Amino acid sequence: MKTRRARAGITTLEILVTVAIAGVFASMAVMNMDIVKRRQSERNALREISSLANQARTYARTSQYPVRLSVAANSMGATVLRWEQLPCDTAHRWGDACPATACLTNACGKGGCECVAQGEAISIPATLDVSALDGLCWLGRGGAPRHQTPGSATCQATGNPPQKPLRITQSQNGKLDHVLQVDGLTGKPRMVDCTQQPVDPTCNIN
């Protein structure tokens, strides 16, 4: 009895299966690449936020003007973070009348608040929620920190220092990502990564 010879080449079905498998692997590779890019963008932003907070504190200490962080939207609608060096109502550089009343609840350039200087705005990825940093300020008296609810009066000598670390979350799922811890006396900021194991005790906040 004659045996059939093995077929040469591949069939259309085999080609389709191979293409489908390749497509699955390609999709997985693209997805993983997007995740890597997103995390890299977030890490870059977190480094810039830490640097910006230190800049704000330094400007407050050296200029004797209060300096605060401001979260806003740029002309493209993207979220940005910057520091604002606030003016005083009186001729002297600091005191109970500093910052100017108009700047207590208004951003620079709005409601009569004309700031002395502004830092370069840094872009915040859409995946990070940094709203807790809005209004964090350092007085022009050794850089003592103050922080009230965003939208309320800020940077007043009679205000309170941050009562707990400020949350930075992943806006898509609300998962705690990092916290900015600010020393209540010196105002020195420290970025803490809450995604690392073991979890830093600073991350155990409500």
Walk me through this protein's architecture.
The chain has 206 residues and is an alpha+beta fold. Helices cover 25% and strands 20% of the residues. Strands 1, 2, 3, 4, 6 and 7 form a 6-stranded antiparallel β-sheet that branches. The protein is elongated, with a radius of gyration of 26 Å.
Number of strands: 10
Total helical elements: 1
Stretches where pLDDT falls below 50 for ≥5 residues? none
Mean pLDDT: 81
Helix/strand/pairing class, anyone? alpha+beta
Largest beta-sheet details: 6 strands, antiparallel
Overall helicity: 25-40%
Gyration radius over CA:
26 Å
Q: Looking at the chains present, what oligomeric state does this protein adopt? A: single chain
Note the gap between the termini.
81 Å
What is the H-and-E element order? HEEEEEEEEEE
Anisotropy-based shape: elongated
Q: How much of the sequence is in beta strands?
A: 15-25%
Properties at a glance:
206 residues, alpha+beta, six-stranded antiparallel beta sheet, four-stranded antiparallel beta sheet, 25% helix, elongated
Which SSEs are present, and which pair or pack?
Elements: H1 12-63, E1 67-73, E2 79-85, E3 117-118, E4 122-123, E5 128-129, E6 137-138, E7 145-146, E8 166-170, E9 175-182, E10 189-193
Antiparallel strand pairs: 1-2, 1-6, 2-3, 2-4, 5-8, 6-7, 8-9, 9-10
